[in-house]
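User: Run a structure prediction on this.
Assistant: Running it now.
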Amino acid sequence: MSEKYRDILVLLKGFLMGVCDIIPGISGGTIALITGVYIRFIGVVSNLNLKNMLELGKFFVFMRVDEFNSEFKRLDLPFLFLLLSGIFSAIFVISKLIKFLLETYEIYTLSFFIGLIIVSSLFINREIEDKRSFNKMFLLIGLLIGVFLSFVVPVNVFHPSYLYIFFSGVLGVSAMFLPGISGAFILLLLGVYKFILSAIHNLSSNFIYLGVFILGVIVGAMLISRIINFLYRVDKSKTLYVLFGLVLGALIVPMKIVVTGIYGVSVLGVVVLIVLGVGVVLLVDRLALKTTKA
């Protein structure tokens, strides 16, 4: 497979992650996991530190191009920038569409993502190597956390402080790094989801708020990526079982909405969209396997 095709595929995976990160109840981390970029993504972010950034900055300022390119590639930053480009493209370009679909066709939109989550959980299970009974107890831990979060009642904060926005960014991105826990859902629980979504489309009047939020996102990403990377190295199977449980538990959020609102929509349409969601994940998984083998 050509390098150009690989780059496009990474960009597409990032785009899908970004779409899911916009929707409360759907996790971009789940997409990262089933498309085979999760561990690499966590690894790259966790390896970033002030020393590396200063080193890159020094090479850039003094025009040491070869050394800059070498360090840039060593840190796997080309991959990270492609993935983040896809994520932010989805957030800025598709957020209005997703908002429209959720407001106008909520049941159908969530039905599609239910199909996506159901089949994605099977792919997570596929990655678990040690399936002893004791390790399966960690599936229950993740499941209980996911179920608990599914029944937490969201609040509304109309005039958040900068400090509140900062910690919202920290917690929101931490959830994004965990498959099954939606960063958007965490923002919804904190009461700033609509505020942040509106701020994205009104940059001029909310520049400082977004800057503070992004700072929180950066700090949160550095912290949670290091924690997950450490846990993954200590015991991959137990960590994946927890993540598997989180995905299954978080599935309650969209299912609860669909079940309560299904009487006002076409049941056939709901079924078709669930199947379509399954099909999209199977297609992405096949593309990911081809990329791995190439």
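The chain has 15 helices and no strands.
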